[in-house]
Design brief:
- With 294 residues, the protein is of the alpha+beta class.
- It contains ten helices and five strands.
- A five-stranded mixed beta sheet has the order 4-3-1-2-5, covered by helices on one side.
- The longest helix has 27 residues, at 119-145.
- The protein is globular and about 50 Å long.
Amino acid sequence: MTSLLLLTGTGVAATLLLVLIVLIMNRRRPKSNVPPGVVVLYQIGRGNFAPSISPFPLKLETFLRMTKIPYMNDHSGKFSSKGKTPWMEYNGKPIADSQFCIEYLKKEKEVDVNTHLNKDEISIAKAFQRLTEENLYWTMCIESFGGDVSAVSSIIPYTGLKLWLTVKFLQRVIKQETWGQGMGRHTPDEVWEIAVHDMTAISNFLGVKKFFMGDEPCEVDCVLFGMLVMIIYNMPGSKHQKFVTEVLGNLVSYCERMKNKYWPDWNDKLLPSPTYKDDSDKIYWHKTDNSTHS
């Protein structure tokens, strides 16, 4: 028994070491010179079915497109000082966490996509952001990594040993994080009940509106779009995906509107697409350009 425990511990340590080596190797790509005033968005790379395999890079990149702030991507997988991704550099200053990035840019660039909202509406939008990122998100993590990982393995753009190591590493991390957050202490049925209530609440509030808070998009749309893309495109065959696509059709239509408005180059950002183009270091919205091209 002792030998088995030692072997298991050694296996885990070796797995973590190999994952660390993979991450370090991903950090070695040299970065080109960055013009002043251009955001460098660090993320983990494009996906097979969506421009990102995580909702948070897509949230931040959609915000950059919504506000037309000049930016470029670094897909090397480099993590922030907090051990998180995405993060950004602006004029040499690193900012970690997608929301802190947005708050920093709002002040630095003096942009505000919520000007058409009153104080009550801003509060409602913030509450739905918290529901989505601090509650619904964790139910999605448990659904994706809690049991059968074949679906999530299909969206991670790795193969062979690198894919296996990544999935095992994420399973271990997410199990620890969901337990600490609290969602992982519930039974599968309880977690699913929470997810259904959250998704239904989002759908009910959206109703027939064009965007979440009305006819004009705002900051919370970046949040919801990122999370809904994860459900619809990056959780194939999951209970979340089936519930949204079969029961909450207005969320699917909403996601398509956001996609058409801010991601006309969507297919160019999908790894298997014949029109895929690696946009590492490409500058979007530079100078007076009014398109998504540099």
